[in-house]
Amino acid sequence: MRIVIVTESSVWDVNNWAGIPYFIAKTLKKSGHEVINVTTERFSVLNFVAKQFQDFAQLLGFSINPQRTKFYLSRISRHINQKVQDAEPDLILGIVASGPLSVIDHSAPIIHVSDATYALMVNYYPQFSNIPKLMFKQGHQIEQRVLDNASLAVVSSTWAARSVEQDYGIDPKKIITLPFGPNVTLPPNQDRDFSEHNRCNILFVGKNWDRKGGSTALKTLELLNKESNEQYHLFIIGCKPPSGTKIPINCTIHPYIDKSVKEERNLYDKILNEASVFLLPTKAECYGIVFVEAAAYGLPVVAPDTGGISSAVDHMKTGFLVPEGSPPEAFAHEISKLWKDKPMLQNLSDNARKKVETELNWDNWVDGLMKESKALK
After folding, report:
1. Are 374 and 321 in contact (CB under 8 A)?
2. Does pTM surpass 0.70?
3. Is residue 351 helix, strand or coil?
4. Could you give the CA distance from residue 285 to residue 301 in angstroms, rounded to a whole number?
5. In whole angstroms, what is the distance from residue 300 CA to residue 10 CA?
C-alpha cells in the first residue's frame, strides 16, 4: 500500500514529536508499505516568521500558533495538495498535523493521528492558555474540519477519544484508540531482581522542568530520605533545575543524553537498567510516551492520573497513579510502599515489560491501524 504521511517536520527525524512519526513510518516500511512523507518544511521563511510572531505574542502574555490560522493554511494549501496528488496514495496518514491535513482535498481515505484534541489542550498546557478570541475560534474550526473529513481518528488514549466524540460530535465508529509504543528499540529483557538492589534509584526524565514536576520530584526525594532509613537516589535526565535550586548530594543530573551516540546510549541503558522506579509528577500530559519507554525497561511508574496517562500506565498493575494535583507526600508514600515490598515491585516490573511486549509496541500499533484501514473505501 502506498501511504502518504503528512507531518509538519520530517518523519525521519527521530527527534520530531518524541520519535513517534519516525517509529510509525519505520514500522510501516518494515511491514512492506511504501511511505511518502509530505511536510511543511519547504515553507521555511513562512515558518520562521510564524515562530517570531509566536514568540513576540508570548512576551505580551498571549499564546498563539500562527500555523493554526486560515491565513497560514491558505499559503501552504496548494503545495500540500500538489504533493499529495503527485504521490497517488492509497491512504493518507496525518500525524499531529491538524493544520496541513485540514486543507487536503483527495479521494484517498484520510486518517488523523494524535494524542489530544484542540479542546483538550486549551488551558491544559501553558502554551495553550490566554489565546486571542479569533485564533481560539479558528483553532476549533480547523480541528472540527480535520475530524469531519477524516475517515478515522486514531488517538492514543481513552481521554482523547472521549473528547473527539463529545467536543466535536464525531461518530464513535470513526474513533480508534491505539496507545503508542516506546521511542526506543525494545531493549533486551534484563530479568530484573530487585532483591539485589541496596538502594532505590528513582528516575525522572523530561525536558520541561516546571511542567514535568521537577520541583515535586526533588521534594519527594527529600521526604523519602528524611522519613526513612532506606537509601534513595534520584537520577534526572533531559533537563536541569532553575538556577539557585538546591541539589542534594543524592541526586545525579544529566541535562541531555543523545541516544543516537553509542557511548551516550550505553549510559542511558545503564541508568535505566539500574533504576528501581520511574517518577514523573507531571502537571499535564496527553499520553506520555516516556512511560512506555520506562515500561520497556521493566520500570514501575509513579505518576499523577492526569490527561491520557492511564492509557499508558495500568494503576496497581504497572505502576501507581495518584490523584491529579497530589503533593510530594503522595508520591513519596507510593515509592516507599513499593520499595518496602520487593515482591510487589517485582510484579509491577514484570507486568510493565509484558505490557510493552504484548500491547504497547509499534508492530501492534501498525497492525491495528492497517486492520481498521482495510474497511475504508
Report:
1. no
2. yes
3. helix
4. 14
5. 33
